[in-house]
# Entry
Amino acid sequence: MRVAAFVIAALAFALLPVNARGDEPPVPAASGAHAFGFTSIEGEALPLESFAGKAVLVVNTASRCGFTRQYGDLQALWERFRDRGLVVLGVPSNDFGGQEPGSEAEIKEFCEVNFGVDFPMTEKVRVAGAQAHPFYLWARTTLGAEAAPRWNFHKYLVAPDGRLVAWFPTQTRPDAEAVIRAIESNLPGAPAASG
# Structure
């Protein structure tokens, strides 16, 4: 009985928001996603606040996945909507099936050569579990465990004000009608989306 109680307590602790555990400084509610930052695939600081005022589609990616062809769809989205205020942000991760084993330089080259990717990408990070990047821990806490990535090419849509307004599972292609509709309703200057 004590072991079961300990396991339940440990799981409850692991699922607490990062801020409740004290691992990260408190995130001001008004900043939302803009309170977080990544390191770019080139090794430079990449604060999400640099995208304030734009919609951001954050996608955990992998180069050796059955869904890797979504890179092409993401690049097409970037080309279609970037002048209207969309940023596509690729977040390479090796969390699912070990399908992103390469270095940042190898990932960048693969994406450029095979899909013409020129949208921003981050260094390789964890997106699942207790050691996930703080953005992903926050997203899971904000939207609930059902909205957490379960595989590569999971998508989060961040509104221009930093709110998480939508998420889409791996199987939902970047060019799906639901994704396009969500993006268009959250572009700068679009009528305010409920969320």
Q: What stands out?
A: Confidence is low (pLDDT under 50) at residues 3-28. DSSP finds six helices and six strands in the chain. The CA atoms of residues 107 and 113 lie 10 Å apart. Strands lie at 37-39, 45-47, 55-61, 86-92, 155-158, 164-168.
